[in-house]
Amino acid sequence: MKLKNVLIVVKDIEKSKQFYHDLFGLEMVLDNDGNMILTEGLVLQDEKIWKDFLGAVTIPKNNTSELYFEESDIEAFVEKLEKYYPSVQYVNRLMMCSWGQRVVRFYDPDGNLIEVGTPM
């Protein structure tokens, strides 16, 4: 068995597709009417489908999971983040961790937590 995809719930699938393309270069692989698969295995699901399926509301910024990306030129990434999405909400700006890795954490437009760190 292998993990195939990671799914996140979004309010505006087109806005989220653009966000993940602008910052991470992810491209659409399949658009299946409210479920969109992007490269690297990220799936965007329309919030309405999720609510209908679960019968429950979503909880943005719940901090129980995060999407983790690695970037060797993290300063350039932070510049791109601030250029394209100047109003992004940070959890922490670029910082050095005790183990020597530099990381930045922020929320996507739907409150999904993202961490970008230098390779270990």
CATH topology: 2,3-Dihydroxybiphenyl 1,2-Dioxygenase, domain 1
Q: Helical percent range?
A: 25-40%
Number of strands: 8
Considering the protein shown, what is the CATH homologous superfamily? 2,3-Dihydroxybiphenyl 1,2-Dioxygenase, domain 1
Q: How big is the Rg?
A: 15 Å
The amount of beta strand, in percent, is 25-35%
How many strands, what sense, and barrel or not for the largest sheet? 4 strands, mixed
Which CATH architecture is right?
Answer: Roll
The tally of helices reads 3
Going by helix content, strand content and strand pairing, the class is alpha/beta
Taking pLDDT < 50 over at least 5 consecutive residues as the criterion, the unreliable ranges are none
Order of helices and strands: EHEEEHEHEEE
Overall pLDDT confidence: 96
Strand arrangement in the largest pleated sheet = 1-4-3-2
Task: Supply the number of structural domains.
Answer: 1
CATH class annotation: Alpha Beta
Structure description:
The protein has 120 residues and is an alpha/beta fold. The protein has a single domain, classed as 2,3-Dihydroxybiphenyl 1,2-Dioxygenase, domain 1 (Roll). The chain contains three helices and eight strands. The longest helix has 12 residues. The radius of gyration is 15 Å and the shape is globular. The two termini are 27 Å apart. 12% of the residues are buried. The model has no long low-confidence stretch (mean pLDDT 96).
Topology, element by element:
Layout lengths: L5 E5 L2 H12 L3 E4 L3 E4 L3 E5 H8 L12 E4 L3 H11 L5 E7 L5 E6 L5 E5 L3
Q: What is this entry, summarized?
A:
The protein has about 120 residues and is an alpha/beta fold. About 25% of the residues lie in helices and about 35% in strands.
